[in-house]
Write a structure and sequence with these properties.
Blueprint lengths: L3 H15 L6 E5 L10 E5 L2 E5 L16 E5 L11 E5 L3 E6 L5 E4 L11 H9 L26 H8 L25 E3 L3 E5 L6 E2 L16 E3 L11 E3 H8 L14 H8 L9 E5 L6 E5 L4 E3 L5 E3 L13 E4 L5 E5 L7 H12 L3
Parallel strand pairs: 1-2
Antiparallel strand pairs: 2-3, 3-4, 5-6, 6-7, 8-9, 9-10, 11-12, 13-14, 15-16, 17-18
Amino acid sequence: MTTQVELNNLVALLEPILRGPAGVNPTGAWAAGTQYYVHDLARYSGSEYLRLIEGTTAAAPDVDTTNWQLFVAGGSGGGGATNLGYTASATDGTVTSDTGTDATLPLGTGTNAGLLAPAQFTKLSNLSGTNTGDQDLSALAVKANNLSDLTSASAARTNLGLGTLATQSGTFSGTSSGTNTGDQTITLTGDVTGSGTGSFAATIANGVVTLAKLANMATGSLFYRKTAGSGVPEVNTLATLKTDLALTSSDVGLGNVTNNAQTQAAIVPNTVPTAGQLLVGNAGGTAYAPVSASGDVAVSSTGAHTLANTAVTPASYTSANITVDSKGRITAASNGTGGTGSPVTQLLATAQFGGL
C-alpha cells in the first residue's frame, strides 16, 4: 500500500524527469474553479490525477473522468490525505475530519492544558509594557499586611488609594465610605445618644419627640389602641371611639333618659303655655311649669313687661298731698293748700311715667 509520504517522495523524484513538453506539472491540491492545463497533476483525496483537457471545471477529479485521469492511487490504511477543519466557540474548539472522528479541544484549567478562554485572552490583550526578566519585589513589600515594613509607607498608601487614612488617629477628619469592621468607637449625641463599636444600642431622650415628628393623621382622628393586647398606638376616628366607648345615659348622669323626647319631658311640662305665660321652676328644682304673670307686672307674648296702673290719675297737682306704698308707688294724690307745687308735679310725673 502506497503511503502519502511515499507518494510525495515519488512525485518529487519524477518531477525533474517528467517536466517538459511531454511531462507532468504538479500543482498541489485540487481546487474547484482553477484553470488547469494538459498534463497538470493535482492531488485529491490522497490520489494524484492528470489533467487531460485544458480548462476550468467544478467537478472533483475522481468523478470528472472526462477531464481527469487517475495517475497515482492513494492508500487507505494510514495513507492518503485527510481534509481537516476547525470550529471555535466560547467554551471549546472542534477539529473536524472528512475521513475520521471529530475531536473537541476543551478550555484550559488550573490543572490541565487546553484552549485559552475568551476572558483570559482579553486580559492578555490588555497587558502592556515589557518584562525584562524576573522581578524582585522584596524591596517593595516585606509583609503584605504591615505598611510599616514597606520601604516607603507613604508611597504604598498612595498606590493602595488610602491617602492619609492609614495615619489617622484620634478624631477622623475627612470623608470615607464602606463598612467599619474595626474597633472604632462611635458616640451619638443630641436627642439620640449611644456609644459603642460596630452595632450598639441608641436611646431617644425623654420629651424630645415633637408632634411634628409623629406620623401624619387625618382630620377628626385621635390616638388610642383599639386592637387587643399591648402594641403600638393606632389612629382611629371619633366615630370609632364613640362605638368603642358604648356610653349609656347613666354614664353621663341622665338616669333613665335615653332620647331627646324624654329629656324635654323631664324639663319642659307637657302643658302647652298660653301667650304671656312664663316657665317657672318648681320648688324642688326638678321641672318647669307655665304660669301667668300676676300682681303689679304684666308680660306680653313678645316678652314686654308692663307695670299695673294705680288709682292716681296722671295730672299736675299743686301743693300735692301724696301717699306712697311699700313698693314705692304713689297710690294717692291731691292738691294741697301750700307750697309752690313744682317739685310735687315733677315727682308725680316721674312716679307715674318713669317706672317707679
